[in-house]
Amino acid sequence: MVSSVDPDSPRFLRQRVLGGFGAGAQRRLAEAHVLVIGAGGLGSTVIPALAAAGVGTISIVDDDTVEASNLARQTIHGVSDLGRPKVDSAADAVARLSPGTTVIRRDVRFVDTNSFELLLDADLLIDCSDTFATRYLANDAAAIRGIPMVWGSAAQYAGQLGVAWDEKGVDYRDLFPVQPDDDAAMSCELVGVLPTVCAVIGAMMAGEAIKLLTGVGEPLIGRVASYDALTGTTREIEYRRDPDAERPGSLEERTAVREPDPDRSITPAKLAQLLAGPTTAGIHETPPLLLDVREAPEASFVSLPGSVLVPLGRLPERLDEVEELAGGRGAPIVVFCHHGVRSARALDVLEEAGFTRVRHLAGGIDAWRVQVEPEMAAY
After folding, report:
1. Which of 103, 271, 312, 337 is catalytic?
2. Of 41, 122, 217, 355, which is least surrounded by CB within 10 A?
3. Model's pTM, two decimal places?
4. Domain check: are 206 and 148 in the same one?
């Protein structure tokens, strides 16, 4: 993603002279792509703060339109924007503030069917949404992509924020393991919110984003910062991952690192030999069918030549098709995904259906990139 933000511009002088910041940090901001979910109360502070600081590319995801009741706290929009899509009015505000910033307008809701595609090129996700369903989905999607997520919330006279980063050992599910019902959550529509709370929390969220993108300072990983406007006080809560906690169906279960079973898996190096037509102990092995169980946006970005795409969720209904492509349920098949988690689940599905010579690629296509094809694009 290319922007026209000049990190050497005089407008960023006060940042470049900061101790520990310098030209390098400013350059990293100019090269960064941040995706922001929500151009409402929090987003109205986060988005212009990122643009003003010199972030090169900002994707804005919001399917809502501007209403009069938004204007007190959603200051990125004005009276003339009433009825307009929020992504449009927010993008116009960024253009006025920082013409060099590339803004990608996503007038859609962040849902499971588009989450990966939206995050494909992003370095950082910022969740400014107002529903638990979106936040938990954003947390899981960011973890699968291997990027951090800055989150925040504001209601009545208080707000809180933190950083979820699964690769660093904690995510939002470690703080709140059970997803609450959005119907029971406090929404600004029902309980109200002091506009300045949105501004304070949004500014702190933007600060966390800048730290993560530049490497300056200590992000709020494993910590929650809380602000109370009525008393003017802040406090911090620490949390950590419980290694013994069961999280059925959670991201932990889907992405847990497991030692590959040598009888049910194959290394990238061994697969490369098979695809090249090798002999093992003097006996020729038939090259296997390569079955890609990732999602379509992943496969369109990078894949293995000759592979067949059958997303994991569609696999049970397409078993006959896989049988035909492989040449029978006793034919060799190698299943792969991004890191080897989904392919291990696909292995169970295929074995239960009577496929007898199925293995999955240990470490997934990412391990293939590292060990076999370093020039392959990473995601």
Report:
1. 337
2. 217
3. 0.70
4. yes
